[in-house]
Specification:
By secondary structure, this protein is of the alpha/beta class. Helix content is 40%, strand content 16%. It has a 6-stranded mixed sheet. Strands 7-8-9-10-12-11 form a 6-stranded mixed sheet, covered by helices on one side.
Length: 292
Amino acid sequence: MTPFTTILTHPGSAHKDELLACCVLLATNPVTIVRREPAEADLADTGTVVVDVGDSHDPALNNFDHHQLPDDAAPTCALSLVLQNLGLYEDAKMFCDWLEPAEWFDCRGANTTAKWLGVKRDIISQLNSPIDITLLRRFAMGTEHKAGEPVWEIMRMVGEDLLDYLRNLRSRLTFVGEHAEVWTLNELADADGNTPQILFMPRTDPLPEEPSSGLDRYVMENDLGEKMIAIIAPDRRGTGYGLSKHRDNPRLDFTRITDEADVHFAHLRGFVAKTSATEPKRLRELLKIAGG
């Protein structure tokens, strides 16, 4: 992206797409955000990133608006355009489940988005968070946001976390592919002979800060989800392992291993457990018990 000194977005009501676009931009360059209508000079000035306003998508000039796109264009928002320019859009579309619904909501509205998702319109409102509401409201209240102000600092943190996630997840998936093992559990084969699978991530040195990070994505990206019933990953709080049902698979219930001597936690809902066991043979035994 061409170096810039100011981020400019529209005044009035704030929406999630331009707020997140500004968050990402702040993470790349912590500058002041101005909320007003752009002048022609702003659109021609590469030092000013114009976001979600101005009727121009011209990355060479740092202009990222989508409102001029035709009605039949694929749902695209200001965040989409910024991520495309950073070369992160395809990974974001793959790894951020919330992105495509956000694009639809911004471009098509709540009713059409609900139909696209196959849910009732009321569901859209029921998913609103006070965090979203407050951030959007406080962002909309200001005409300028600078470093040191709470809203600006939170936005920068959101952008940093999102970029870190996107930039690191690909390497994390490669790491998982190099170390993880796919186990078959013949003891839990169903009447048709279908054998369930377990993804086992062994303890490595050094241990990642979040040992289970990327495991679910690895399963889905490698089309393992159909048979995968559980994931085993190092417990970052101990020397053993955490056992969890994959996508809440009904084949397992970890309350069945509550009384095992080497199990120190099993959630009452049966979807996760913690054990001090480290030997694969014992971990497989615990899964067999959890499978009934």
